[in-house]
Design goal:
The longest helix is centred in the N-terminal third of the chain and has 17 residues. Helices cover 6% and strands 53% of the residues. The strands form 7 sheets. It has a 6-stranded antiparallel β-sheet with strand order 1-2-24-23-22-21, with no helix packed on it. It is mainly beta. The radius of gyration is 22 Å and the shape is globular.
């Protein structure tokens, strides 16, 4: 009888495990959901750059809808170009150029119609009393429909000194760009209407715009004064977030957060969670640094450090996808819809891989 009971427990454990109900798995100091090798569901290809102009270094920013690449070419004199490169045909198309005085800085939003980016420079760290350091950072837009390039805003020195411009999220929705600024010591969110060419503050004591379920949310203060609540700009909807919020990211149909919890003896854990209904469900727990989550409606990515295996989360497959076949370096992942780019992050050499679903077929 005891033997049958033990056998029953073993069979139950096996059934539960293979049904995927067991949520956590252990690897080093990382706990995560059921995982799979990325090559089982994605084509993973090393990118061939032989068709690019010579004497330039390159930096890939996104893979686009047709798996061509949005990338920046930079010469030694800091003159650069932003354009589209097709690895299959090895053709390069320049979109716009930048000089050394106001260089390209960062791609913020890549949508079907618009590229929103920053240009300029910021000396780090910025201190108010240091006259030798300076900053000049602009928010610009490029129309993928017309090729028009337009300057929208110059960020205030007050905002740049806060250092948060590198983590605040922007969004374009219905031809309006939502972005964060700072006025009188408080964050605020601007809306720039690209059709009417008009800019206005739409939320004060708020930061980081997010598109979720066809609504624009901003991160605002809770009753205790912490930025732990998402407020809809044009409705009464709101989403309460944990007090130990570390980062937040959304797409139109999915919202994810990172939380940071201090443990004993200087240890910590970082938890990745998805909003499902009115509750947050855990996807991953890490006791090693992960940061800067971003997601589409198909993928979630985050930065890893200390030569950890690069990973992402497939929303469609509900699995962690691991790129464990890559050499252990600090890798960065950029995603666009259901596709992505892996970039080796130690800057010792250019090494990029693209990945896209196998059901798309080969290029």
């Amino acid at each position: 009888m005891i033997f049958l009971k033990i056998l029953g427990y073993i069979l139950l454990f096996i059934v539960v495990f293979f049904a995927g109900i067991i949520v956590l798995k252990l690897s080093s100091k990382l706990f995560y959901m059921v995982s799979t090798d990325a090559r089982k569901i994605y084509h993973v290809e090393k990118i061939d750059f032989t068709g690019l102009p010579k004497h330039y270094s390159n930096h890939v920013w996104r893979t686009l809808e047709d798996r061509s690449l949005l990338l920046e070419l930079e010469r030694e004199d800091d003159i650069s170009e932003l354009g589209i490169y097709d690895p299959s045909s090895k053709k390069w198309k320049k979109l716009m150029g930048f000089d050394a005085e106001i260089p390209f800085s960062n791609l913020e939003v890549c949508s079907k119609d618009w590229l929103v980016y920053t240009s300029g420079y910021v000396d780090y760290p910025l201190y108010e009393e240091d006259e030798d350091q300076s900053a000049e950072l602009y928010l610009d837009v490029f129309s993928r429909r017309t090729g028009e390039q337009r300057r929208l805003h110059q960020f205030s020195l007050e905002y740049l000194m806060a250092g948060t411009h590198v983590i605040h999220s922007m969004v374009v929705h219905k031809d309006i760009v939502y972005f964060t600024e700072m006025e009188n010591g408080e964050f605020c969110v601007y809306a720039y209407d690209l059709v009417r060419d008009r800019k206005e503050v739409v939320a004060r004591e708020s930061q980081s715009a997010h598109l979720y379920k066809d609504k624009i949310y901003v991160l605002g203060k809770n009753e205790d004064g912490r930025y732990t609540k998402l407020f809809s700009l044009y409705s009464s909807d709101s989403i309460a977030l944990p007090k130990n919020l570390y980062d937040v990211s959304s797409s139109n149909h999915h919202l994810f957060i990172l939380t940071y919890t201090r443990l004993k003896k200087g240890a910590f854990k970082i938890t990745l969670m998805e909003l499902v209904g009115d509750c947050f469900e855990m996807l991953l727990i890490s006791k090693k640094p992960i940061s800067y989550i971003r997601n589409s409606d198909d993928l979630v990515r985050w930065n890893v450090e200390n030569h950890e295996t690069p990973m992402a989360y497939s929303i469609k497959h509900k699995k962690i996808i691991k790129f464990s076949f890559l050499r252990h370096r600090d890798w960065f992942i950029f995603i666009h819809e259901d596709k992505g780019i892996l970039r080796r992050g130690d800057y010792m050499e250019d090494e990029y891989y693209s990945f896209y679903p196998k059901d798309e077929g080969t290029a």
